[in-house]
Design brief:
The chain is built from 3 helices and 37 strands. The chain is mainly beta.
Length: about 625
């Protein structure tokens, strides 16, 4: 074969090889293109690590969001299908403005290799409200940076702009504490005059001394407080810095009062009892919010107002608590000073009869408790094993003429388990369908620490009428959620262990109405959101007896007429928050105990005491 033939033969074979390599070459070129033919899916986004960027919607209306020009919401006022990525972040297809600001943490997978994310946030159409001018249209077009060492929160504000706030990720200096701050971004003027610096108080109106007043547009420094369940309240501050108890700010979703044309003092508004966990970081955020009230008779013409109110935000979730429990003590023994020592350390000192001490945070495990009289002598002692998140109360009381100690644990969630539906299979794996939970409620434990063998607690002499009671549903005039063992035939010094609480729940949304997707209060009168449907008043106690063989039990039995019943004021946190002196029973967590000698034996006379366990 000549050289030409050899060349042609090699060229022919090479052409074949070239043709075989073409797909590889084209595929290699395709890999260099910017567009990715395999975009992120919702599964990838949902499984991605969270970035340092978190978004909050305080705009008072629904928003749409794009990330890197990919719509994450439906961009429509109607209910339409969203894409997989967007639905993993915004399941409803839109970014609503919830009571907590509807926080969204952007996943790392949406950021480029330089940690940048191009984002567009815009309002969904013109937001018009009867009684208010249109909310400013919003369109934010910016680039967000993922900087784990300097995390940031991006607040979409009602004024149509984005506010960027540094988020503190430093844990509290004390492991059993949490961090708290206040941001006051309220408008200078609002319908109810709730403007100016604000001051934080506990449930009874006592100011939180660690926090000064916080002016408009200001952010307070973080303070650290012992972990626990708190019922904080926020007030407009007087010039002196003291709370103006007639100008309380509402904690969403609770509304301010709007009777008498908005001239009613803002006082005694319901706030939620919240668990602030050890190691967590929280913010109370004041913003102007669109709140609607129905003043018409047809229920379809609400009038809206822009009113300063606030939310409680979790800035940094607490780590799992594997260490801390809480314990407090109560003197239910005699009318003399009693102190309490836990493992030799004083946790409460100088408690008079019926008085309770504050909770102390202690490490989980075995502990020894002593009750000590005014001379330093130990009058009673007890041992207990504490577990994380226990809320233990130690009661020193009289048993057989001597002091004794009983322990109770308070579940501060207003949650009750009830397997009540004929159509719900209780297979022991998922109890969520059988769990009743109330954010606002009066939850009470009843306790017999007296000389009466069996007692039954009643509402003005009539047994409580639970909606749920031992696997039964009462369709009548119910007033509670409870099991009968919680208030019937209680023995001295024997706390009920299982389902021990009587819950007076609220219709949390029962006074709210919806119109075109917006929420408003029906009637525009006194604010009932969060108020219990009924209250435990007056509480009267009876000497009762259980069934014994062929003998029928006596329930409620004979009234203990020498025991003064409890009234409305006994379930109020104090007098400061009631400038009009109209005290009422507040939501929260209580124990009602019968103590002393109700049968007329020697020693302190029988009486009912109330201990409120949340601060």
């Amino acid at each position: 074969m000549n050289s030409y033939s050899n060349y042609f033969h090699r060229l022919k074979n090479g052409s074949r090889l070239f043709l075989l390599l073409l797909p590889v070459i084209f595929n290699a070129c395709r890999k260099t293109k910017v567009d990715n033919p395999y975009p992120l899916t919702g599964v990838q986004v949902a499984g991605s690590s969270p970035s340092s960027v978190r978004l909050f919607n305080f705009y008072n209306a629904t928003l749409d969001v794009k990330a890197n020009n990919v719509p994450l919401t439906a961009f429509s006022s109607s209910s339409v299908q969203g894409n997989q990525i967007g639905l993993s972040l915004f399941p409803s297809g839109a970014w609503s403005s919830g009571d907590d600001g509807s926080p969204v943490t952007m996943p790392v997978s949406l950021f480029d290799k330089n940690g940048q994310l191009h984002i567009i946030i815009q309002s969904r159409g013109v937001q018009g409200y009867q009684g208010l001018p249109d909310i400013p249209m919003l369109r934010v077009d910016t680039v967000l940076s993922n900087d784990p060492l300097h995390p940031k929160d991006y607040y979409v504000m009602g004024g149509g702009y984005l506010k960027v706030i540094d988020r503190n990720i430093t844990a509290p200096s004390q492991a059993d504490h949490f961090k708290l701050r206040i941001m006051n971004f309220g408008q200078p003027k609002d319908t109810l005059g709730l403007t100016g610096p604000v001051v934080l108080t506990y449930a009874d109106g006592t100011p939180v001394k660690e926090l000064d007043t916080v002016g408009v547009g200001k952010t307070s420094p973080y303070v650290e407080l012992p972990y626990g369940s708190y019922q904080f309240k926020l007030y407009v501050a007087k010039a002196s810095g003291e709370p103006d108890y007639t100008k309380q700010l509402a904690e969403l979703p609770v509304y301010p009062n709007f009777s008498n044309g908005g001239n009613t003092p803002q006082q005694d508004l319901v706030t939620r009892v919240r668990g602030f966990k050890p190691g967590g970081t929280y913010t109370m955020m004041v913003t102007p919010n669109v709140l609607g009230y129905n003043f018409s008779t047809n229920g379809e013409s609400p009038t809206f107002f822009l009113i300063n109110s606030y939310r409680v935000l979790t800035e940094q979730a607490a780590p799992q608590n594997i260490s801390w429990a809480r314990i407090q003590a109560v003197n239910a023994w005699q009318d003399q000073s009693v102190s309490f020592r836990l493992d030799g350390m004083t946790i409460s000192g100088g408690l008079g009869l019926g008085q309770s001490g504050d909770y102390s945070a202690v490490i989980q495990g075995a502990h020894h408790l002593e009750a000590v009289d005014g001379s330093g002598n130990t009058i009673a002692a007890g041992d207990i094993v504490l577990y994380p998140y226990d809320n233990i109360t130690a009661w020193v009381f009289a048993r057989g003429g001597k002091a004794a100690i009983a322990f109770t644990n308070t579940d501060m969630t207003s949650t009750l388990y009830e397997s009540m539906s004929n159509y719900t299979v209780d297979d022991g794996t998922d109890g969520s369908k059988n769990t009743w939970h109330f954010n606002y409620a009066i939850q009470t434990r009843f306790l017999n620490l007296s000389d009466v063998p069996y007692v039954t607690f009643t509402k003005d002499g009539v047994l409580f009428n639970p909606y749920v009671s031992g696997n039964l549903i009462n369709q009548g005039q119910n007033d509670t959620v409870a099991y009968p063992q919680a208030y019937i035939n209680l023995q001295p010094g024997v706390p009920v262990v299982y389902n021990p609480f009587v819950v007076f729940p609220s219709l949390e949304g029962g006074w709210l109405m919806k119109l075109n997707g917006q929420t408003y209060i029906e009637g525009g009168g006194s604010n009932n959101i969060g108020l219990a449907q009924s209250d435990p008043l007056p509480i009267r106690v009876f000497q009762s007896s259980p069934q014994d063989g062929v003998y029928e039990g006596q329930v409620p039995g004979a009234l203990l007429g020498n025991v003064t019943p409890l009234k409305e004021k006994d379930f109020a946190s104090g007098t400061l928050i009631y400038p009009d002196s109209n005290l009422r029973a507040e939501n929260g967590f209580y124990t009602v105990a019968l103590i002393g000698n109700a049968l007329g034996n020697s020693g302190p006379a029988g009486k009912l005491i109330v201990v409120k366990h949340n601060k």
